[in-house]
Amino acid sequence: MNDLLGYARVSTADQDPALQHDALTAAGCFRVWTDTASGAKTQRPELDAVLDSLRFGDTLVVWRLDRLGRSLPHLIETVTALGERGIQFRSLTEGFDTTTAGGEFLFHIMAALAQMERRMIVERTRAGLAAARARGRVGGRPIALTSAKKRQALKMREDGVPVGEIAEVLGVGRSTLYRTLSARVITQSA
């Protein structure tokens, strides 16, 4: 038998999920799982529980799309994973329903738009980095030890100064200093 399972989410404990529960029950859901968590949170135990409970042929029903997905890409990823398991998806407010040809078509359009958005973000990021490089700007963390500080660290170490004290004097972490010293030893022995 194909079951309708509901999922509801409210952002804070002050909010009442009754509206969502009533709509999901009226739609025929025999059980509703409810999370009280921000949509941005990645850990939603009740969502995990309903996803584990769904079986081939079942339908996951939500009151609105934003109750399920943290973002459009996350929503599409979740609905795609459901489809791969033979599980349908329905959103009551938007009328989105993958059990119909029109709903499935709409889902594929949304997926294509999300993919295009991801590609555009990557392209804009690459273009921005290239423009910054052309102006002489390099990204990443600044170098902790300049050449002068490296020479000073090596001299201090040769004079027997403990690594912790050298790190404190130069204002760097011990691990940074160890990396610098071991790299210098390796290049000298090569």
UniProtKB/TrEMBL annotation:
GO terms, biological process: DNA integration
Keywords tagged on the record: DNA integration, DNA recombination, DNA-binding
Keyword Repeat: no
Domain (Resolvase/invertase-type recombinase catalytic): residue spans on this chain: 3-136
Keyword DNA-binding included in the entry's annotation: yes
Catalytic residues as annotated in Swiss-Prot or TrEMBL: S11
Matches recorded under InterPro entries: Homeodomain-like_sf, Recombinase_CS, Resolv_N, Resolvase-like_N_sf, Resolvase_HTH_dom, SSR_resolvase
Classification via SMART domains: Resolvase
Entries under Pfam families matching the protein: HTH_7 (PF02796), Resolvase (PF00239)
Name used for this protein in its record: Recombinase family protein
Organism expressing this protein natively: Rhodococcus spelaei
